[in-house]
User: What shape does this take?
Amino acid sequence: MKNPSRLALASLSFAGAVVAQENAITNRLPSIVVTATRVSDSVDATAASVTSVDSSDFKAGKFSSVAQALELVPGLAYVSSGTPGQQASVFVRGTEANHTLLLIDGRRVPPSLAGGFVYENLSLDGIDSIEVVRTPSSVLYGADAIGGVINLRTFSGRGLAKPVSELSFEGGSFHTLREAASTRGAVGKLDYALSASRFDAEYPRPNSEFEMTSFRGSVGYEATKDLYFDLKGNFAASAAGSPGSVSFPDPIATLKREVSRISPGIEWKVSDTLLTKAYYSFDRQWQRYRDQFASDNKLTVDAHQVDAQAEWQPIETLRIVPGVTMVDLSFSQFDAAGVENIRAHQTGVGGFIQGLWNPVERLNFVSAFRYDSYTDYDNAFTWRQAVAYRVPASETRLHASVSQSYSPPTAQDLYYPGFSNPNLLPEESLGYEAGVEQPFLNNHVKLSATWFRNEIDNLIQFVFPSPQNVSKALTEGVELGVEYQPNARFKTRAAYTYLTAIDDNSGLRLLRRPRHQLGVNSTYVPIEKLTLSAGVSWVMERQDSQWPGQVPIGDYLTLRGAASYRFNDHVEIWARGENLTDDRYDYIRGFPALGFGAFGGIKLTF
Assistant: This one.
């Protein structure tokens, strides 16, 4: 890459130059979020670090995947083993990949055999917004939330006066073809939202083709003004070549996946002071991996889940949110000889209670406690205490919290034949954060700073021949942010994260966590029908493994841009570019990321 500093400076200068617009905008209302407290709340009331990326951001940047949208979140590192479709991980504030829980519409996605989730196969079809809570959240969600929670919120047709339908097509570099269709609306008391897409690509390395078909849908019925039923579901099937690392390529390896879900739910407003919600979900994950060494593993993960909660407001200044959850997981894996080498069953039941207290205007307290009981590892007690205050004169927002969270051993750690340890303890974390947010210029400018620290005990690491609770880890850092929106035509936001993530026992850095991470994203509407978008990502100082120690992975800076033109309410065209600097870098050592790519598309709305 040539002169990254000059490219970054030029991008930032461009962002500054286009803000000289004079359209005044009114004060923006506080964002309403759900994930941080499991109820609809202003960000102030959550006393947490929450970032919401909505469909307007997706459309402006012409993002095609959840991975691209997650790059807008401070403190979050998305790491892929190569091209789209290959295994990917998310590290929030330096915690492990299996320490961040994934939800869809507030409903848990079950983990894979090795923990974590299949982020690489998540499209943006039917997604209205993404909420990312970077505050430890086991007290509300149980396992796998040391780093926080990612919640994909889908579109609904509820309340629409008339249906909205879209057809879109995109093509471009790497033989990319993407087709998508969606429709949503309401007929009387019935509402619906359906989407489908197909994606095909052939990436530069041999054996790196990828294809995926996905469907997502929901149907809702408003039986009365106080009683609402819904049914949500999704299905995705993908097939990808798995070329392996540059040093040890595999010309024939393939990875096939199928993921499906069906989930009915109910919401009942019992009275003006009591709201109840419940859902059931059945999920199935199927995966087949074959390689040049005659491996042919077939894995199935089945999950039954029940989640119920209430929101009770006995007095105006106090809300109490109790809830119970149940998770039942089954794992089955067959080897190339057709022998079932993993057969396991886990169950867990948990209960929590949360109090949200607003004793005086602008002051909010959050207090929550939870207990979980499991069949295959130790039970867990977790809690969170938090406070937030917005200063009247300056509108300064102050927030702080301390949280106890945990993450259990993965099924692979517990059951993999010959390389497992059934006596593992859950990883535990004590997390702290304190932050300040300050608006200026009638809320057109917003500055923020947050300090965080996670002290992790019983960290699980593989010590031949099995995983062990041998380590302690510390992740600590600062997130700095700035948002600038002088008018309705332009907005920009930048976020910088400084992170220290170390293994306390060895003193070594945790792998693939950047020490410095900077992101800048801007949107500009010079004329009513034209939207321009640009983004910069700069990642610095990462380490990867190389026996017998570690080696640095190169820094990288990528620039993306998009332009869309809307002829009328029915026709829109766009062009976008990824990695415009054609920077050559690896997310993981030996697995090169994609170079420059150019794409164009059209969307019809009716």
About this structure: The helical segments are 4-17, 43-46, 55-61, 66-70, 138-141, 411-415.
